[in-house]
Design a protein that fits this description.
The protein has a domain of 29 residues. It contains 6 helices and 2 strands; from the N terminus they run ααββαααα. A two-stranded antiparallel ribbon has the order 1-2. A hairpin with a 4-residue loop joins strand 1 and strand 2. It is elongated, with a radius of gyration of 22 Å.
């Protein structure tokens, strides 16, 4: 029986066809390859999720849902994220609502007319920290801070 597994030159050719050597590929080539793929999931390095997703607070049920932004691409991205990544599962909706509660308290404090400038600066610094990519629920934080014209 012939060998069913590629080896030698065949294996090298197969690997080259399936795996990009990043040392021999530039950003423009990778972007072009990704663009032809028409993937549904958001590419975190090439797309800004803020352009495709929105957040909706449901105060009655104490949840925050991720919704699709405007357009067909946003709908595809949202649907894929919900289906494959579970972005609207109950535990996340509830955790998002807890985070939104903290953000709302900070906003109420920030909006207090008698608040001193030093305290206001401290809260603004916290808003900046909460907007950084590594911060938990940073996308939610940025979304609502933009909605409130605080970012």
């Amino acid at each position: 029986m012939p060998n069913a597994q590629p080896n030698g030159i065949q294996l090298t050719q197969l690997v080259q066809a399936l795996v990009r050597d990043v040392t021999l590929t530039n950003d423009e080539e990778l972007v072009a390859l990704w663009g032809t793929e028409e993937a549904d999931l958001i590419h975190p390095y090439l797309e800004d999720p803020a352009d495709l997703l929105a957040y909706e607070a449901d105060d009655a049920n104490r949840e925050v849902w991720i919704r699709a932004g405007a357009g067909a691409r946003a709908t595809r991205a949202h649907d894929a994220a919900v289906k494959f990544l579970g972005l609207n599962r109950e535990e996340l909706r509830r955790l998002r609502y807890e985070q939104l509660g903290i953000l709302r308290i900070l906003k109420l404090s920030f909006d207090e007319p008698r608040l001193g400038e030093a305290t206001k600066a401290t809260i603004r610094a916290k808003f900046d920290e909460m907007s950084r990519p590594a911060y938990p629920f940073a996308g939610l934080n940025r979304f609502f801070l933009r909605e409130w014209n605080l970012l």
